[in-house]
Amino acid sequence: DDDDDEPELPPVIQRRVNRLKELNEDRELLMEKYLKERAELEKKYGDQFAPLYEDRLDVINGKRDKEIDAAAKENGEDVGGEGEQDEEPVKGIPQFWMVAMSNLDTIAETITEADVDCLEHLENITCTDDEDGKGFTLRFFFSANDYFHDTVLVKRYEVPNLLLSDEPILKKVTGCEIQWKRGRSLTYREVTRKQRSKSGRRAGQIRTITRKEKSDSFFHFFSPPEMPKLDDMDEDEADALEEAFDQDYDIAQSFRSHIIPKAVLWFTNEGVEDGMQEMIEEAARAMEQNNEE
Question: Are 142 and 150 in contact (CB under 8 A)?
């Protein structure tokens, strides 16, 4: 019982503490209203961002090539002479998302050389926030490729305090099982070795054993850490699990807050400078507030 943990106070002090609790309850009611209105505001502008992201997708995938080239010609720009005449014209911006991801360290450190070819088939990344502001869903859209059958890979996060600046409380993280084509998995590889039986009727006989070994890959992102029962973990295991969830959520927020809204800046590698400028401005605001106090 929480009341049992409260210190025993003199009646005169307890009455005043009770009043403070009433004020705190009033604040909680206002906070609920604030979060509801903020979630509605986030959705309102999220709906307005959507057409911009659709236009961006068309540019990346080459659907606006003729329109952009025609506008350039009208402005007197030379759009001819790009490559040899017998070469197929470049469509859209190849490798756009893979390059953008590679320029953000949080994500780049998870991408291996083996992942690159597969990520070249990544056509779009979207993020949809829950209407109540307590979670979000990332979707990665792929064209047909030699690695898996899926056209969309999904990762979902339930975060009750998503709209607050507090340390995130992860209620649930859900990934998806990638349908790898035979022998094309990037997350595991099959290792075959020969083993000689030492006893029994087959003593001395050689048999072939095949087992799966984990490979480093960005695509492990879609298989989030599992939360075991706390009673089953020691302190080191709990620390390792917390670190794994922290890394997983940092990657998710890198997509949600950086790659998706500012994709072109990360493609051109200007996102780093933009991020540094934001940090400088935040530090300046903090110093200004301290000086005012």
Answer: yes
Q: Is the Cβ–Cβ distance between 155 and 249 less than 8 Å?
A: no
What beta strand segments (E) does 112-186 contain?
Answer: 122-129, 135-142, 152-158, 172-174
pLDDT in tens, 197-246: 766 666 667 767 777 899 999 999 999 887 666 666 778 877 888 889 99
φ, ψ (nearest 5 deg) of residue 62: 90, 5
Q: What is d(CA 241, CA 144) in angstroms, rounded to the nearest whole number?
A: 35
Phi-psi region of 95 (alpha: psi -120 to 50; beta: other; left: phi over 0): left
Note whether 256 and 127 are within 8 A (CB). Answer: yes
Q: Which residue has the tokens 């001395």?
A: 204
**Paired tokens of 62:** 């080459």
Radius of gyration of the chain from its Cα atoms, rounded to whole angstroms: 27
Q: Which value, to the nearest 10 degrees, does the dihedral of the CA atoms of residues 263, 264, 265, 266 take? A: 50
pTM of the model: 0.81
Which pLDDT tens digit goes with each residue over 165-209? 778 888 999 999 999 999 999 999 887 777 767 666 666 677 677
Which parts of the chain fold into alpha helices (H)? 2-5, 11-60, 65-74, 96-102, 105-108, 113-119, 235-254, 263-267, 271-292
Average pLDDT over residues 126-155: 97
Confidence of residue 83 (pLDDT cuts 50, 70, 90): low
- Which amino acid, 87? E
Q: How far apart are CA 96 and CA 90, in angstroms?
A: 13
Position 7 pLDDT exceeds 90: no
Name residue, tokens 């009433």. Answer: 22
